[in-house]
Design brief:
- The chain is an alpha/beta fold and 278 residues long.
- The strands form three sheets. An eight-stranded mixed β-sheet has the order 5-4-3-10-11-14-12-13. Strands 6-9-7-8 form a four-stranded mixed β-sheet.
C-alpha cells in the first residue's frame, strides 16, 4: 500500500486537477486504513491519523490550500510567524520552510494532549528557528483554566475558559501571555503573519497585541471568522478593531490570491479571513 499511497500523495501535491480532494479523501482512506504515520515537513515531525479527514488532507497537501498558497506567495526568508493553536504542528512546519534559517516560527499550544502529541516526535529547542510554547495567547499574562477535549486531535477543538463550555471538557491550568508581553520578552519588533484560529479567543488575542498593532508591526493577520446571529457582536468588535488599526479584510482564493470582502455585509460566513495593512 505504501508505494500507492506515496504515488497518490505526489499526484495530489503537484498537479491541480479537478476532483483531487475527493480522490485524496476516498482513495487516501482506502490506501491508509487506520494508519498513524509520522511525516517530516521542513524538519518538523507531524504525526497524522489517516482516519481523520483533515489529517488526510494535510498528507496530500490539500488542507486549507488557499491559506497555504497565500503563505507561499507572501512569507519571505527571514520573516517571523506566530502560530497560536499549533495543534499537531502542520502550519508551523509549512511556515518553517518558508521563513528559512534566518526567520522564526513561534508556536503556542495550550492543550496538554496536542502539546504531548508534538513532543512525541519533536524536541523543544532542537530547531533554532522554531519555538514551541506550552501556553496560550490572550489579552493578559498569567494563568487561566484551559478546556482540553477528546476532540482536540481529530477536530482541533479545545478552548480557554470564558469562550465556550464544552460538555466533554477536561480542565487544566495553563500559562497565558499577551502578544505584546511576549514580543517584548523576546525582542520581537515585527511579525509577518499572525494566525488566529483559537476557538473564540481571537478578539482577546488582538486586544493583547495593542502595542504591536499601533506600531503597524504585524503585516498580515488571519482570523477564523464566524458570522451568525450569536456571533455577530463578537465579529463586529474584531472587524472594528482591525479596521481601526488600518487593516483591510480579504478572502483567499485557492491559488492564494486575495479578494476584498466586507464581512459585516454578509448574512453568514465561516472561514479564515486574511487582514492586510492598507
Amino acid at each position: 500500500m505504501k508505494p500507492l499511497r506515496l504515488a497518490l500523495r505526489a499526484l495530489t501535491n503537484n498537479i491541480p486537477f479537478k476532483g483531487r480532494y475527493r480522490l485524496a479523501d476516498k482513495a487516501g482512506a482506502w490506501l491508509a486504513g487506520d494508519l498513524h504515520e509520522v511525516i517530516n515537513i521542513n524538519g518538523i515531525a507531524v504525526e497524522l491519523n489517516h482516519n481523520v479527514l483533515t489529517h488526510r488532507m494535510m498528507y496530500h497537501g490539500l488542507y486549507e490550500e488557499n491559506v497555504v498558497n497565500f503563505l507561499r506567495r507572501n512569507i519571505k526568508l527571514g520573516d517571523v510567524v506566530f502560530d497560536p493553536g499549533a495543534n499537531i504542528g502542520y502550519f508551523a512546519a509549512i511556515c518553517r520552510g518558508l521563513v528559512g534559517d534566518s526567520g522564526h516560527v513561534y508556536s503556542f499550544e495550550p492543550s496538554n494532549a496536542a502539546y504531548a502529541h508534538m513532543l512525541k516526535n519533536n524536541t523543544v529547542g532542537a530547531l533554532k528557528n522554531w519555538t514551541l510554547e506550552h501556553s496560550a495567547l490572550t489579552d493578559h499574562s498569567g494563568s487561566m483554566t484551559f478546556y482540553d477535549t477528546p476532540r482536540v486531535m481529530t477536530r482541533g477543538f479545545a478552548c480557554l475558559e470564558g469562550t465556550y463550555e464544552p460538555k466533554d471538557r477536561i480542565p487544566h491550568q495553563v500559562e497565558v501571555v499577551s502578544l505584546d508581553d511576549y514580543c517584548a520578552s523576546k525582542n520581537i519588533s515585527a511579525i509577518a503573519f499572525l494566525k488566529l484560529d483559537i476557538e473564540g479567543s481571537e478578539l482577546k488575542a488582538l486586544r493583547g497585541a495593542k502595542q504591536m498593532l499601533a506600531k503597524r508591526a504585524i503585516r498580515t493577520i488571519l482570523v477564523e471568522t464566524t458570522l451568525m446571529a450569536h456571533t455577530q457582536e463578537l465579529t463586529r468588535e474584531i472587524d472594528d478593531l482591525l479596521r481601526g488599526a488600518g487593516y483591510r479584510s480579504h478572502q483567499a482564493r485557492r491559488n492564494g490570491t486575495l479578494v476584498p470582502i466586507n464581512i459585516m455585509e454578509r448574512k453568514e460566513i465561516r472561514e479564515d479571513i486574511i487582514w492586510t495593512l492598507k
